Amino acid sequence: MITVEELIDTLDNDATEADLKSAAESLLEAISDWPTSISEPSELVTELKLHINSKLTFKNIERFLKTQRVEKDAWKMESLSSILNIFKIERNEIVDGELELEVLLQRITNRLKI
């Protein structure tokens, strides 16, 4: 899975496609906004699995977001919104309602290594 270092390199590389830069930026925001201390995308996926208890699809993440309360979970909500944004950015190429976050992140990783 992609690392934070690779995400930062993606943002710094002028040759990176705009949508890939947007996805990388959203993922970095999701990591930094998560309310507990995490430093890598894999840790974010682990945290989400603990909270959602289901496949990490757009619908399930969005459903979980709707259960959060702004006065208590504002940072988590920001993080979840950034994750949903990654799905929206990548949806131009991938039309799959059951696509899971881990697979999406792997596809992004593969695009970076081409």
List the helices and strands and how they pair.
Elements: H1 4-12, H2 18-33, H3 41-52, H4 58-66, H5 70-90, H6 101-112
Helix pairs in contact: 1-2, 2-5, 4-5
Summarize the structure.
The protein is 69% helix and 0% strand. With 114 residues, it is mostly helical.
Please describe what this structure looks like.
Helices cover 69% and strands 0% of the residues. The chain has one domain (4-112). The longest helix is centred in the C-terminal third of the chain and has 21 residues, at 70-90. The model has no long low-confidence stretch (mean pLDDT 91). The protein has 114 residues and is mainly α.
Pairing-aware structural class of the strands and helices?
mainly alpha
Tally of distinct domains:
1
Helix percentage range:
55-70%
Mean pLDDT: 91
Helical run tally: 6
How much of the residues is beta strand, in percent? under 5%
Largest β-sheet summary: none
- N-to-C span: 15 Å
Number of strands: 0
CA-based gyration radius: 13 Å
Shape from CA axes? globular
> Low-confidence runs (pLDDT<50, min 5 residues)?
none
Q: List the secondary-structure elements in sequence, H or E.
A: HHHHHH
Entry keywords:
single chain; 114 residues; mainly alpha; 6 helices; globular
